[in-house]
Amino acid sequence: MPPARGTRAPGGRSLQVGLVVTWLSVIVLLPLAALTAKSFAGGVSGFWDAVTAPTALAALRVTILVSVAVALLNAVMGTLIAWVLVRDDFPGKKVVNVLIDLPFALPTIVASIVLLSLYGPDSPVGIHINATRWGLVVALAFVTLPFVVRSVQPVLLEADREVEQAAASLGASGPTTFRRIVLPTLAPAIISGTGLAFARAIGEYGSVVLIGGNIPRETQVASQYIQQAIEIDQPVNAAAVSVTLLAIAFVTLFVLRVAAGRGRRREEEVR
Amino acid sequence: MITVTGARKDFGTFRALDDVSIEIPSGTLTALLGPSGSGKSTLLRSIAGLESLDAGTVVIAGRDVTRVPPQQRGIGFVFQHYAAFKHMTVRDNVAFGLTIRRRPKAEVRAKVDELLEVVGLEGFQHRYPAQLSGGQRQRMALARALAVDPEVLLLDEPFGALDAKVRADLRRWLRRLHDEVHVTTVLVTHDQEEALDVADTIAVLNRGRIEQIGDPDTLYDAPDNQFVMSFLGSVSSVGGTLVRPHDIVLERPAPDDTRANGPGRVLATIERVVRLGFEVRVELRDADGERFAAEVTRGVAQQLGLVAGEQVWAVAPSHAVRDLPQPPDAGVPADAAEADEVASTAGVGEPARA
Amino acid sequence: MTTSTTSRLTLRTLALAYLVALLAVPVLMILWRTFEPGFGAFWESIRTPAAISAMNLTLLIVAIVVPLNVVFGVTTALALVRGSFRGKGFIEAVVDLPFAVSPVVVGVSLIMLWGVGGWFGGVEHLGFRVIFGLPGMVIATIFVTLPFVVREVEPVLVEIGTEQEQAAATLGASGWQTFWRITLPAMRWGLTYGVVLTIARSLGEFGAVTMVSSNFPGISQTLTLLVNSRYIDDQNTYGAYAAATLLMGLAVVTLLLMTLLDRKRSTT
To answer: Which of A151, A171, B59, C56 has the most other CB atoms within 10 Å of its CB?
Structure first.
């Protein structure tokens, strides 16, 4: 819409834009620029050496491995939970629905403590996953739970149930209808939720810091490696792994955005 | 009195106003009529100061306001989609302009009460816009605009978002209101029926230019060009001659008729005879396959015994035919820079276009 | 989908079992562990000087971060929605950036910029200690909460459009009057929602803050840092549970507020 006269921004538009650019630069861009500069302080080879140092590489490998596992777990369980919340009906459904957001509201360190109290050293149920990769998976599954549920739920709500009924009337069984009709509609939402969960998982720190155990080459994730590198005063190593993490997150989100754009275009063509 | 001189406005490469000049006398109700993208809304918004002109001047009540912001132009503006302040009650909406001007509370109260009565919303003052119908919202918006005693009242397709029945009621109500209040009013519309119904003066716009200004009768009976003729009222083409359908004379061909087709005179086949109350519309097709319509009284139709499938002469009598020039840039632009207008073009009263 | 009762029950059981094992039981567990020794013990544990100081520091950070985020968040949203300028797409992307950055990476970046030897490290000589000081914790919290207000206000601004603002202008309202009387009230629920999200995240931020805090009990510990240090450094498991329960209480309040606001937002 063309900016109309007389409704000029308080203080004027250009002042506003200047303010915004300055603010975002100081808070977001300059720190990230300084980080990137530091990671290349020893040139490209310095960066490469820092990232491929055995402990660094192991931490990155553990991070990605566990994050992929958690993302896949989310894809399945998140879709299932969303389906139950939309299509099923049972007493207490509303409470469950609100509960889904709890991991977003709960501080990550609290998530860590909460899981430790049940699955930690003095577990009352006899499950000890403290300082194992399973501990990482549980912690990350906890904090990323809402992503897939919350992206699938609205799509499922809007999905045209008549299409499913048509499939059933044509003789398709329940599972067949789900696989051939429902799943394709939900796929974009599942993929985007899974991608967001993955991006969150690779950078997660607070929820794994207590339950993960921080054992190098075993359960130490990238964020813990970075924290330790700062502690023992190896800023270049910390910066290089940080930039790697950033790059993975950006690529993930970028791919998601492109995929979403393509999917939307295809649906519009159908119309 | 509003005087616009040499107004020009571009949106990117689209010229919305192209050297427009118009004078709107005090106390009149003038309609700016035209198709989508004709520049009528841009002209109104330029008078209000919501758009700034690339060239030309706007003078309101003797004051050059070309560079004056809308706040200080002494205008009241009514938007197509009401622009109701949703978080305020009807009373607070109407009182807004007065509150901004820091008028004493008692004065605001009295003025708002008076206006609510004028627009027939007394008893609704504590409601929120969401609790009003579209017609009520627009009357509230009108009261809000009138509250500040504007020099001129500007209405941008004020009834465009309402359904046909409410629209007709509201425009007659607006006409009565204008006769009471006498504030200089400019109304933008794409609906010729609306313009003919309420306005003292109509300015027909097309492609950023004013094609003709005049009272409704003049525009209808003596259009300056083909665009104005076809935009106001319906038009039939008899062998290439433009004429109003009710001016067409139908004649039964004589057995030994040897007259040839010519401009304003064709032998046509009756496709359908439609009764519209007192009038009868005869749908015709000439030998070239061109379809057109004539309107005759029921008496004439019965006298001629018009039946589908038969042939008649359709004649455009010379007194009804004017040799009209094409407008300078003939045609209707498909470009729709004014998005709001596009949304409402689907309304009733859409005139047939040449 | 026409699902048989058996398969529906199976799916329901699976989903609920997952949620119970992952969410419900751990949360109930920590509540039980906190309140098993009695409410008095909990109360004492969160009234120690270190805990009170952590509470105060956390609230102080919230009190600084929220107004800054409101002012700059609303300004950014207005510029992005109402303005047209070159580089708008870039600004949009930058606003989303904090969502993609690991909290630890935020901390490291701030150290590289503001720490000793960093680009802005010089400010320390002027007596302005950012890293290992309050400013660092504030900036870290602003970094991670930056998108919330912008992203909640933006869609509201798009939806209300400019007509109401134009109408206010024709009625004589100046730019600031229009902002205070029309624009701000119209976006109040979106803004409130953004503020609630900001508060929740500020209360709970751990990774970014832990990197830039000197982490001294009673001086530079926030509530989240307190939970961590009680568990790790003091081996005070109960104290950690109690502090975590306190934070959880705040989170639940936030959650309820969000649910209520969501309803409010969708009805107005």
So the answer is: A151
